[in-house]
Amino acid sequence: MKLKNIILSCLIMLPFVSEAKIDLPDIVGNDMVVQQQADARLWGWATPGSKISIYGSWNPSHIVNTVADSNGKWQVELPTPKASFYTYKINIKGDGSDITLDNVAVGEVWFCSGQSNMEMPLRGFWTQPVEGAMEAIAYSGKYPYIRMAKVPKSKAYSPQDKVESPWKVSNPENAYNFSALGYFFARSLSEILNVPVGIIDCSYGGSKLEGWQSREQISKYPEWDIDKEKADTTLQDYERINIMYNSMLHPLIGYTIKGFLWNQGESNVGKESTYPFHKKDMVEDWRSKWGLGELPFYFVELPGWDYGNPDNNNAAFFRECQHKAAELVPNSGIVCTSDLVYPFEVNDIHARKKKEIGERLAFMAAGKTYGVKGMPADYPTFKTMKVEGDKAILSFNNAWDGFTPNKELEGFEAAGADRVFHPAKAVENPKTLNIEVTCPEAGTIEAVRYNFKNFAVGKVHNIIGLPLVPFRTDNWDK
Q: How far apart are CA 263 and CA 157, in angstroms?
């Protein structure tokens, strides 16, 4: 009788002991978007040594098999079809599990990161709206093939394996909390390419660039000390370095994407001497860890704000270094935003024109990554200056048909040998398409600057509508 009870107890316990199931990260789930025409990476955890088989409903005869390693981790690369407006299923079987992922879209996937201007949802922040949000949210259900996976803000001083990041389908209930910039990028790119678009929003308001870098990278910088910061109890989470990389980004490394979008910089103003090189290091590190080649990396120019004093130029020097970073990083680009602020936003770091920024990023991606010819993605930039008498004559790149408006151009300053800048008169020569600058207060002009301030609303565009990038012709230190 005693032996019988023991056997019965074992049989009762057996299902619980032997029951095992595949554990998936949130990013591999229902409503996900997988990159089209790629070997899409999917992964999870199971009992070490267990066999896993996976197929997509677009080709159920092509089954990909793998075995969980000694730590229980497994990973496969599942070939995906060309993008279309169909939904599919992915079946994952093994270790006592038979999982079907529903409503899977095949399209283009972009990874979005940075600080609060990337994080800012369509619903806006406290007392800070997103322009056009009401209509965007109301009609978001028209775009069910736009999906977004939002990573919650968190911190860790060691790399993590998992993070909450479920995919959400575009509709008014979900889009309300979507990254506004990410949503407008996705909507625009989807309309241009006629494909589904997935966005992974991995952003943290106030974060430094170094918050998104690995310990290996930061250890190369003498000005940063992770362990010292870790011991500092006065620092806010958003101020800390390395922690966003560990807790928010590291768990998603490897998910098959097309490229990166980056909107960050406010918390690094004043670090313009090192930022371009740290940025280059970060991009190289991310690309290396993703292992998908030289993925495109597009970022956004620092917004206009007072940064302590709207007439100072510390933020202007930082914008300049952002463009330098774009020159240092291959297969990258930067979207100019100098014209996307209202005069009354001088004290608001979260400018409301997110739609235009998202569209400009989509135009850049469409032209430079997808090869759509004719896309407006090359901004007019300063080229050369020569001085003739009391006049400085400026030439530009990417302004083949000239500038608008066709009258005196606002935002120019000039300085003479004393290096004191004065408002200057600037007009376009309709024959040469150069901009001619005069400034009696400066005497013989030594340098010209355009919109080179913390806060200045750009008024000059090329005739297709892209703003002139703020610039200076000098190399003075203030």
A: 23
Angle, alpha carbons 249-123-347 (nearest 5°): 90
φ, ψ of residue 272 to 5 degrees: the values are -65, -20
Q: Which residues pair with 112 in a beta bridge?
A: 201, 261
Dihedral of alpha carbons 57, 62, 68, 69, sign: negative
CA distances from 64 to 57, 61, 99, 404 (A): 13, 10, 15, 57
CA 458, CA 302: separation in Å to the nearest integer?
Answer: 13
Angle at 370 between CA 366 and CA 371, to 5 degrees: 90
Q: Which of 451, 447, 461, 470 is nearest to 320 (CA)?
A: 470
Rounded to 5 degrees, what are φ and ψ at 414? -140, 150
Rounded to 10 degrees, what is the CA torsion of 254, 260, 263, 269? Answer: 80
Which tens digit of pLDDT belongs to each residue from 63-78? 999 999 999 999 999 9
* Cα(78)–Cα(101) distance, integer angstroms: 14
Mean pLDDT of the chain: 95
Per-residue model confidence as pLDDT tens digits over 337-389: 999 999 999 999 999 999 999 999 999 999 999 999 999 999 999 999 999 99
Phi–psi pair at 16, nearest 5 degrees: -70, -35
- What's CA 359's distance to the chain center, in Å? 13
Quick check: helix, strand or coil at residue 132?
A: coil
